User: Fold this.
Amino acid sequence: MPPRRSNKKKKVKSRDRNIKATCCQGCSKQLDKDNFVYCVCTQVRFCSSSCQDDHPHNGCTGPPETEFSVTSMLQNLPEEERVSREARNDRDAENRETVQKPLMAYILSKGLQGINSRFSVWDLAKWADEGDGPGNQACAFIAGSRFRHRLLGATRLDGAVSNTGGDDIPVLESQELAFKYFERAAKLGHGIAMQSLGTCFDDGVGVKSNRRRCNQWLWKSVLHGSAGAIELLDCRALLPLEIRANEQTLQQAMQMMQPGQTMQLGGPNLGALLLVFHDVLRRENFSLPPFAGNWATGTVNNPVQRMRGHPRTPLIGGKDAKELLLKIQYLEMQLGLNFTFGYLRRGAAKQATAQTRGADPRAKDNQIFFAPPFASCDERVTDDMINKWHDQSMRLAYSQSDSSRCAYFTICVHNEGSQDKGGFCKACEADAMERLDAIARGQVVLSLDEDLPHRGQAAIFRDKNGDLKIETWKTYAGGEAECVLAALAASGMPSYVSPLFIAQDPNFLWPLIADHGSIRAAVEFVAPHVDWNDKIGAAKENEQVQDPLIPGCRPGKHLRKCGNGFCNNLEHYRSETFQYCSRCNRRKYCSTECQRDDWPIHKLECSITSSETVANPRLDDAGEGNAEDKPLKYELKLEQGEDCVVHGLKGKPQYNGKVGVIGESTEGGRVAVTLRYDEGNVISIKPDNLYCIGVFCRKRKKKSRVFECKHGLVCCADCYLDFTTINRLAKLKYDGQNMTSAAAIEQCEEIYFSSLSLEPGESSFSLDEGWPMECVGMKEHPEQRFVLRALVKVESPMSLHATVARTAFITYGGAFTDLVLRGCTKLGDVAQML
Assistant:
C-alpha cells in the first residue's frame, strides 16, 4: 500500500466530497469518521446498525463484483457518448504516447521487468506519488482507472487480470481513491485523465456531482488537444442543446410558412448569440483560432502572440451549428423561405434562466459560493464610454447582403411588452454598470453549484445602494462562454467585446468572471493574436479598494449562504457563525427567524427517524393530537365587508355556491349579502346559510404579518389550507422588496413546488363531474371544496382574505398534483393586494 501522507497535508474539503460518503443513507445525518456501518454492497454508509435496519438500502446490488469487462462496459455506453472511429483511433494513439510508453519507460528505469510482470494497484499508486514526470502521470491515471473499476489484484500491463489476493476495500473508498489519482494526473497536465476526472464529477464518483465542473475539465482536455474530449463535452454542454432547439422551429416552418415569408430564430441564450454570427462561423470553418493556453488566466496587457503552428480550437456545438445552417440553406433554396437570427437579453422570455421546469427538490445542504479571481483591470463604465459604445453599435445594422455585419438584439426584459422594441435599454445598461462596479471592488461571489436542480447558478453582489443582490445565471461552463466570446472577437467589431455589451447579460458575464476575473482578461485569452491595446485601448489598472462582501474573503475562498432561500447572508465556509438545524444537522441558518421562515420548506427535506415517519410528509401540519381534538384559535364569525359563500338555500337554490360580501345585520338575525354576480344583487340570508372563508391574519410587532387557519396553523390538513407561499410574499412586502415582480412571485412558487415529496400514487385523484380542476384531492373535504369552487368562479376582485383562501386551497392541493395546479395559484392577485 502507498505510504500514509503527513498530517500537515491539507485534507479533502467536505464541500468536494460525495454526499454518500459523508452522510448516513438512512437519516441523512453527518457521519462520525470513526463510527459508521457499511451496507453489504459497500456503496453507502449508515450511522448505526439500528438505522440500517430501519432504513434498508433499496438499491443494494449485493457484494461488489471483483471482475470487470471492458468490452461489456463499452457496449453499455449511451449512443451519444460513442465517439467516431476516427476519434477512437486518435485516442488509441494518444493512449500509447501518454500512458503505455511513459509507463513502460518508468518501470524499466526502476529495474523491473516489463510486460510480463504483475503489479497491484497499490504499486501504481505508490509510483504515482514519487514525482511529477510523464511516468508518474501515467501511473496515476492507471491507478485511478483500476480503483474506479475495482481491479485491486495483481494485473499485467497487457490487460490480463488476476483478482486473487486483491484487497477487498469498500466501493466508496475505491471511488475516493479513483478521484484522488485522476485529479493528480489531470492537474499535472494529462489529457485523458482530465476526461476521466470530468466524468467523475458528472457521475458523482468519489466527489459531489457537479455538471459545470465536469464540463470545465472536459474543456481543459479539449484545449490540451486530447482526442474525443469535444465529443464528450458536446453531449453535456448547453450550447449544443440550444442550437438543436431551433430544429423544432424549422419543422414547424416547413408546415406553416409560405414561400417568401421570413422567420426569425433566436432566444435569450448564448446559443442564439452564437448563431447571429453564422457568417463568422462559416468563415472560420466552425472552429476558432488558438487560445492563449490550456488554463484560464486572469492577466491583461499580455504581449501579442501569433500562435503559428498551433492547432485551432474546436467550437463547442460547432457540429450542430453546421448541420442547422445546412438545413436552413436547403429550405431557403428549395422552398423559398427566409430565416434571420436574433439575440435577446436574458429574461426576455419567461423562465429564461431555467433549463427545465421539473419539480426536483433542492439540496439539503447550504449553497456554497466562491470568490472569483481578482479583477486585474478596472472596467467600470463612464458616460463617455457609453456614448462611444452607442456610436459604434448604431453602425452595425444587420443586412443579409453584407456578411460582415451582424444582428443586434432588439428585445430585453424591460421593453418586452412595450411598443418600442428597438435601440438601447437604459435599464439594462444601468444593471451592467452596477455589475461591473461590484466586480472592480471585489464585491462578488458565485455559487459552486445549483440550489434547485436545473434552475441555474447564482451570483451575489453589492448594488449601488449597498444592499446584497442575488441573480441567477445558466450553468454554462467557462468553455461555452469563451467560445461565444471568441466568435465575437473574430467578427472584428469592438462594440461586441465591450464590457458594457457583455455585462448586460448575466448568462454571458458570470461564467467569464468565474474563470478570468475580468472581461478583458477573457478577451485576451481567447484571442491572443489580436492587439487589443490598439483595437479597444489599453486596459486600465484596477486601483479600487477591495471591499469584499464579508471581511477576510479573498479570491478562491469559499463561503456558505444562509439556508433561507430569501436571505443573502454569508459566512466563511469553516466558520461557525451560522447554526445547524438541530433535527438533521445538515442545513445552517443565520438566525432563528430565518430558520422559522424556511421551516415550511425544510420540514419536507429534514430527515426524520423511523418513529417519526408519517405516511405523507406534506400533510405534517405540526399539530398535536387527532383532528377532532385540535383546539380553535380563532372564532368563526361573519365580519362585515368580508366575502362569504352561500349554501343550503331551498327557496332560492340558484344562489347556492355564489360569493357575496357581508353587509349589515337586519331584523330577525338575517344578514344582508351583496352578491358578486347579478350586478350586485342584495339578498337577506340567515347566518346558518353562509360559509365563512376561514382565513385569519395575525399581526406581529416589528415583523411581517402571518396568515393562518382557524386552528392557528400555517399548513393545516383539516382545513386543507397552506399559506407558505403567501407568508413569504408578506415577508418580502415587510422587508421593502418588490414582491409584485414576476421574478419574486415565480421564485416563491418555484421554491414551494420544487420541494414537494410525493409518494407513489398520490397524483392519481379522480374528480366528480362538475367540479373544477383546482378541487383535485378534496374529496374528503366537501365544505372546503364547495367554497373553493365558488371562489374559482369569481372573476372580479375579491377581498384579501378570500383571495388568500383561494391561493391557499390550491397550494395545499399542489401536494397531490403539483405540476397540474402550479399555474392555478394566482399568486399575483395576492401580491397586488398585500
The chain is about 35% helix and 10% strand.
